[in-house]
Amino acid sequence: MKNFNRITTALVATLLTTSAFAAEVKVKWEGVDDYRDIEAVSDIQERFEKRVMERLTAHWQDLGEKLPEDHKLAITMTDLDLAGRIEPTYGVGGSGHVRVLDSLSFPTMSFSYSYTDANGEVISSNEDVRLKDLGDGSSTLRSIHGTSNDNLYREKRLMTEWVQRQFDVR
C-alpha cells in the first residue's frame, strides 16, 4: 500500500510539473475556398478540408505546450498549399487523381499571429508570415514517405520549426 501511495504521489507531482507549459492556442481558418491547394483526391472535398484543418489546428495546440501556460497564441491561417501535386490517373476503374509527393512539390502556408503574455500585452505579432519547406535537397520519395505515416508530416514539420525559431523553444 505504501508503494501505491508513493507511485500515486509521484504521478500527481509529475502531472503538476509538466503543466507549467501549455499556452492557450486559438486557430482561425480564413478564406479556405481561396487556398492554393487543399484539394482532396480520394475523399469528399468538405470532409477532407475539415480533417486537414482539425489535424493542423491540433498540431498548433500541441506546439502551444512548449510555451508558458499564462500566454496566448492566436493564429489566423490565410493560405495553405499542401505538399505534393495532384496528377490524373487512368486505369480499369476509370479516371481518378492522386497526390504525388516529391522534392519539388513542397508545402507552403501563410498566416498571421499574435502572441500575448498573462496581462494581455503583445509580446510579438506579424500580419503576414509565409512559410515554405524546400527540404534539404537530399530527400528521396522513400525518405519522404518513410519519415512518418502522417500525410501532413511536412506541413507539421514546417509549423514546428517556425515555433522553435520564433519562440526559441525545443
The averaged pLDDT comes out at: 82
How much of the sequence is in beta strands? 25-35%
Helix content: 25-40%
> What letter string, H or E per element, gives the SSE order?
HEHEEEEEHH
Poorly predicted tracts of residues: 1-19
Number of helices: 4
Overall, the morphology is elongated
Tell me the total number of β-strands: 6
**Structural class by secondary-structure content:** alpha+beta
**Tell me about the biggest sheet?**
4 strands, mixed
- Beginning-to-end CA distance, first to last residue: 39 Å
Strand order of the largest sheet: 1-2-5-6
Radius of gyration: 20 Å
Structure, explained:
- With 170 residues, the protein is α+β, with helices and mostly antiparallel strands.
- It has 4 helices and 6 strands; from the N terminus they run αβαβββββαα.
- The strands form 2 sheets. A 4-stranded mixed beta sheet has the order 1-2-5-6, covered by helices on one side. It has a two-stranded antiparallel ribbon with strand order 3-4.
- α2 runs parallel beside α4 (153-167).
Outline the secondary-structure elements.
Elements: H1 2-18, E1 24-29, H2 45-63, E2 72-81, E3 85-91, E4 94-100, E5 108-116, E6 122-132, H3 141-146, H4 153-167
Parallel strand pairs: 1-2
Antiparallel strand pairs: 2-5, 3-4, 5-6
Using brief descriptors, characterize the structure shown.
alpha+beta, 170 residues, 4-stranded mixed β-sheet, 6 strands, 4 helices, disordered N terminus
